[in-house]
Structure formats: C-alpha cells, structure tokens
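Fill in residues.
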C-alpha cells in the first residue's frame, strides 16, 4: 500500500441499539454513520487526506466536505449550484476545520429534526419542494453509509487505519 507506514485498528463500534419506532431507528442509524464517517477523517495526515487515491479523484477530506453540503442542503435548505465541487475542500481548510463544519451541520440538522414529529410531513426548510422527513432520513442513511464505505477504504490506503 503506497504511503502506509503503520497499521492502526480501531475497535469496531457495533450498530446502534435504537428504540422501536421508525423515527428512532432511522435517526439512530444516521447518527451512527455520521459519527463513523467523521472519525474516519479525524486525525488523517496531510497531504494524503486531500490527495486522490483513486482515478475518480475522490479524497477523504472531500468526502466529508461533500457530506457537510448534503446535510445543509437536505435539512437546512442551503442551495448547492455545483455538486461536483463539494467533493473538494478548500486548500486552506484543515482536517479539524472540515470535521468541525460537518459536526456543526449535523447538530443544526438534528435541531431541525428534533422538531419533526410526523415522518410524512415535508422537511421544514425554506426551499420547496421538500421531501418527506421519512424520505430525507432514508436518503441520508444511504448517502452517508455509501460515503462512509468510501472513507473506510481511503483511510486504510492512507495510513492503514481500519475499524469504525
């Protein structure tokens, strides 16, 4: 593996135990994935964290930057005019900056979700049309899970770190 200098195995965190409701299950798994993907980026070394490890150009820091934009667009109503650009962090952004922005977006999104009691209701965001909360949560589990898998592979390629 290019660039691998040490192998670190994190203890795997098992899937969450959630309450019995659909909302508790969806939010529990989404928060589990959010925590996992942020942990994958935290502590990753420069410049490898922003260096493309695959021909598509995907890089670890860019994945988290993209997920920040997805959270903000889905739950906070932010407009994104260039989705491909969200896969790259700004050159001046540190790992800590991107992780902090992601965690802030998650906290703000959870604040919106905390006020939602009906999964069939539209996401309460300024931009319309808004999907149902159920659809938004299911989509975010899929989106975050997909990119968490990418992050697993990229982090292992960077420094051998594995586990959730």
């Amino acid at each position: 593996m290019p660039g691998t200098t040490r192998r670190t195995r994190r203890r795997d965190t098992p899937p969450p135990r959630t309450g019995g409701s659909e909302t508790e299950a969806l939010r529990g798994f989404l928060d589990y994935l959010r925590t996992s993907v942020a942990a994958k980026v935290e502590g990753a070394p420069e410049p490898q964290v922003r260096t493309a490890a695959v021909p598509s150009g995907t890089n670890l820091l860019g994945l988290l930057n993209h997920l920040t934009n997805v959270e903000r667009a889905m739950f906070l109503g932010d407009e994104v005019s260039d989705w491909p650009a969200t896969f790259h962090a700004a050159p001046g952004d540190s790992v800590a900056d991107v992780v902090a922005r992601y965690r802030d977006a998650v906290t703000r999104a959870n604040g919106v979700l905390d006020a939602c009691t009906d999964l069939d209701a539209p996401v309460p965001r300024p931009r319309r049309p808004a999907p149902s909360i159920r659809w938004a949560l299911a989509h975010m589990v899929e989106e975050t899970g997909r990119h968490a898998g990418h992050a697993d592979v990229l982090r292992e390629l960077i420094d051998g770190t594995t586990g959730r």
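Residues 34 and 144 are 7 Å apart (CA to CA).
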